[in-house]
Amino acid sequence: MRMRFKLMTDLARYMSRQKRAGKRYFPIVLMLEPLHACNLACVGCGRIVEYKDTIRDQMPLEEALGAAEEADAPIVSICGGEPLIYKHIVPLTRGLIERGRHTMICTNALLLERFIKQVAPSPYLSFNVHLDGMRETHDRVVDRDGVFDTCVRMIKLLKDKGYWVQTNTTIFRETTADEIEELVKLLTSLKVDGMLLSPGYHYQVLTNDIYLKSDEMPYKFMRVKKLAEDHKIINTPIYLEYLTGERDLLCSPWTTVTRNPQGWKGPCYLITNGHYRTFKELHEAIDWEFYRTKQDIRCRDCKMHSGFEGTVALDFGKNLRDSWKMVRYYIS
Questions:
Q1: Looking at residue 141, what is its pLDDT?
Q2: Radius of gyration of the chain (CA)
């Protein structure tokens, strides 16, 4: 299977409960950023630029755990910044697991060895290792030699110790389709539990031109779609068809909400109009339909999974053919 069975069943029950209650705008994933500091300076990262004035801020542990309760999403992605720098990362992870949250730690892998000595494998815990290509590409993107080799070594260590391991790869303009295939085959040989491949988002605070434009995505993601037939790529088949230009999708930014040391970030994980004191204030302030229909100019070239995979999840069951396609895909 491409995803844990328990995560899929817990998610299905949660969404069914929300819909029965008549709720339309509810989160599926909480992107919990307890800090924005990082031990790398990746060329495509907007966070370390956007939050440069507050880069040393860290969320109190009680506030981080409280954010998970406030959003009440079944999945919590601990990100940042590099979350393993966060001084409360061990009690935060343990606390989320104890509360039955499916907890994913998004990491560059440099500090993993220290962390796993303190937190044992759990059916609620997974790691999402950042890997943006083969050795030359990845080390260039993270601006440090040797990081690719560290990632490979840490993936092997995590798998040996029984942790659930996924990878997250951003496909840039210079990433070739052949390199994508080489990386997918390498990760398959390492027995990773899932691979997420996504086009990057051109943050407004960055001046580089490394990201794919909408009309450049279909060619490269046709290769990804083909590779998904034989490898554990966890992008949904519906989302892949959107990336290849075979269908259109609306965005559901409310399905992936972000909490960081400055508050609840809105309107979405990628765009910042403001920060709100409470989750309730965030929902009351945002015109979700405006962003759902991609009317903001900043949404023009965005096809990031954070909003569109949420749409796929919400639409499950509406179309029999698509639903059967999803079922067959995830149990394969």
A1: 93
A2: 19
- Cα 261 from Cα 265, distance rounded (Å): 10
Buried b (16+ CB within 10 A) or exposed e, 53-74: eebeebbebeebbebbebbebb
Nearest to 96 by CA among 75, 112, 113, 80: 75
Apex 37 CA angle, 36 and 43, nearest 5: 90
CA dist 202 and 200 (Å) reads 7
pTM over 0.90: yes
- Report the DSSP beta bridge partners of residue 272: 267
- Domains in the chain: boundaries: 5-331
Dihedral, CA atoms, 251, 27, 63, 118, nearest 10 degrees? -100
> For the chain, what is the mean pLDDT?
94
**Per-residue model confidence as pLDDT tens digits over 210-269:** 778 778 889 999 999 999 999 999 999 999 999 999 999 999 999 999 999 999 999 999
Residue with the two structure tokens 């990057």: 200
Query: For the chain, how many residues are written?
Result: 332
Q: How far apart are CA 236 and CA 325, in angstroms?
A: 9
Report the candidate in 168, 113, 170, 114 with the shortest Cα–Cα distance to residue 140: 170
Where b means 16+ CB within 10 Å and e means fewer, 256-268 reads: bbbbbbbbbbbbb
Mean pLDDT to the nearest integer, 155-164: 98
Q: Which CATH superfamily is domain 5-331 in?
A: Aldolase class I (3.20.20.70)
pLDDT at 136: 96
The answer, yes or no, to whether residue 203 has pLDDT greater than 70, is: no
Q: Tell me how far apart the alpha carbons of residues 100 and 250 are, in angstroms, rounded to a whole number.
A: 30
CA atoms of 38 and 46, how far apart (whole Å): 12
Mutual angle of helices 5-20 and 305-315, in 10-degree steps: 70
Rounded to whole angstroms, the Cα distance separating 146 from 139 reads 7
How far does Cα 329 stand from its chain's mean position? 20
Structure-block tokens of residue 312: 């796929």
| Whole-angstrom distance, CA of residue 124 vs CA of residue 102 | 5
Query: Do the beta carbons of residue 36 and residue 261 sit within 8 Å?
Result: yes
